[in-house]
Amino acid sequence: MRPAEGIQVYLCQGAVDMRKSINGLSTLVEGALGLSPFEPALYVFRNRQRDKVKVLYWEGNGFVVWYKRYEKQRVYWPEPTAEGVTTVTGRELNWLLDGYDLSKLRPHRKLSYASVL
């Protein structure tokens, strides 16, 4: 269960109590982040020790929560922003879940051309 590249992903900056379930996480999305939990987006949370991650998603007729516990490693988390939430792509979330540090792993920027002549 990994996200597609085109989906909007929001990373919550602060540590979250992993005892929170759907109601608590959706309340955080709406109250603390100022976003709608019903949008077609993923909302990602981590605990203080950075060894647990939860992802909240509205599937059209109900919420889905995805949970990952790291056995030995820790998840890297981007530096906080003034808004309290960081947006990443689905591809970057997959990298994050695989243990990559996003600040050091940057793909080449995409180039756009109108002609080869």
Quick gist of this model?
With 117 residues, the protein is α+β, with helices and mostly antiparallel strands. It has helices spanning 22-31, 90-97, and strands at 8-15, 41-46, 52-58, 63-69, 85-88. The chain contains two helices and five strands; from the N terminus they run βαββββα.
As a percent range, the share of helical residues equals 10-25%
Question: Strands across the major sheet, in which order?
Answer: 4-3-2-1-5
Oligomer: single chain
Terminal residue distance: 43 Å
Strand proportion, as a percent range, falls in 25-35%
- Average of pLDDT: 87
Round the Cα radius of gyration to an integer and report it.
Answer: 15 Å
User: Structural class, judged by helices and strands?
Assistant: alpha+beta
Parts with pLDDT < 50 across at least 5 consecutive residues: none
Number of helices: 2
Number of strands: 5
- How many independent structural domains? 1
Give an overview of the whole structure:
This protein is an alpha+beta fold and 117 residues long. The protein has one domain. The chain has two helices and five strands; from the N terminus they run E-H-E-E-E-E-H. The chain has helices at 22-31, 90-97; strands at 8-15, 41-46, 52-58, 63-69, 85-88. The protein has a five-stranded mixed sheet. A hairpin with a 4-residue loop joins strand 3 (52-58) and strand 4 (63-69). The protein is globular. The protein starts with 7 loop residues before the first strand and ends in a 20-residue tail after the last helix.
